[in-house]
Amino acid sequence: MIKTIELFAGVGxxxxxLERTNKILEKSVFNIVWSNQWEPSTKTQHASxxxxxxxxxxxxxxxxxxxxxVVDIPDHDLLVGGFPCQDYSVATTLKNSKxxxxxxxxxxWSIHRILSEKKNKPKYLILENVDRLLKSPSNQRxxxxxxxxxxxxxxxxxxxxxxxxxxEYGYPQRRRRxxxxxxxxxxxIYKKIQKDSLDEWITKDGIMAKxxxxxxxxxxxxxxxxxxDLKDVSDNFGIGEKISPFLNSGxxxxxxxxxxxxxxxxxxxxxxxxxxxxxxxxxxxxxxxDKDELDKWEYLKGAKKEIRVSSSGFEYNYAEGGMIFxxxxxxxxxxxxxxxxxxxxxxxxxxxxTPKGLRRLTPIELERLNMxxxxxxxxxxxxxxxxxxxxxxxxxxxxxxxxxLTLAKEID
Length: 412
Known about the structure:
Order of helices and strands: EHEHEEEEHEHEEHHHEHEEHEEEEHHH
CATH architecture of the largest domain: 3-Layer(aba) Sandwich
CATH topology of the largest domain: Rossmann fold
Helix content: 25-40%
Number of strands: 16
Low-confidence stretches: 93-100
CATH class of the largest domain: Alpha Beta
Mean pLDDT: 94
Strand order of the largest sheet: 3-2-1-4-7-9-8-11-12-10
Shape: globular
CATH superfamily of the largest domain: Vaccinia Virus protein VP39
Radius of gyration: 22 Å
Structural class: alpha/beta
Number of domains: 2
Strand content: 15-25%
Largest sheet: 10 strands, mixed
Number of helices: 12
């Protein structure tokens, strides 16, 4: 049994993926022994309420992770979480301290604190973030990811990563996120990685390659070392560079980095918006667009070339391309964003055409686009607009399921 903790849990996307792997394998491989979810910007903890209703609160923490003592977190074999994208620079050296730490409020450092202070470090990590992590910030391309890799390298982990667009592997949403997996030096998987075959780890030997196959030919590749100390990486990595050295796949092993741009290799059936739609008779009337609102929707979705005036009175030329309106139900959806909910016209909300007229997507349909169970986010204290927000913050559960299934088989 792999004892697991879920950080930045949201409404439990990682947990659902792990539990589905248990079901496929017909045994309890992954056991969630502790979870944490805290939303600092809201009084009502909507995501945590949903999480606790589904799994109870006996092993669940609903306080700021920065205020949790590491001693109060159970020992675990696997740490998972989709943490916020922030500025990960190293801010200071603490006097009489345990080393370099970043700015308070930057939640990567909470993960780092757990890994640093745990005597029995987790053997495996599965982490998720937006793909711009690989190239941020704009004035030091790739620094943030380099800081993370350096931290994990110093803590004794090898790391592999891949940017995955869910729709390229048969899932119903074009959602692009970077997933990275860490293997502690005490594990057999770490010992399988060899410096002279890092490219083969990406193409065929790694957990990512086995979960999400790629074409064998790299579009481009790079190899470099990350041997500077952590503060130097934070201060100097990427300065003067216009593009990040980190490509959409890669592996870190003992300070050596091999990274390559790869293409997905999938010939299975691809899901579409049509495949996740509920029966039209079940759609509440408020999801249909009023005819007197249609002009606003068409304007926001359409191409524009106009003069606008800033709040300070400055005139400027504004232009943007048009979007397909309504969305094609014969293709995967665009990425769900946190502003998906609510009746107000928007450029980015999904709108589909039905026999009864144009309408927005319902909460169940948004859940299905992320492969959550129907009505997973339904709660008497959670509005439909907030349910859409939560799905905009969630991940595609099927990706976690694939990675964890491959990892479980590899460990076994």
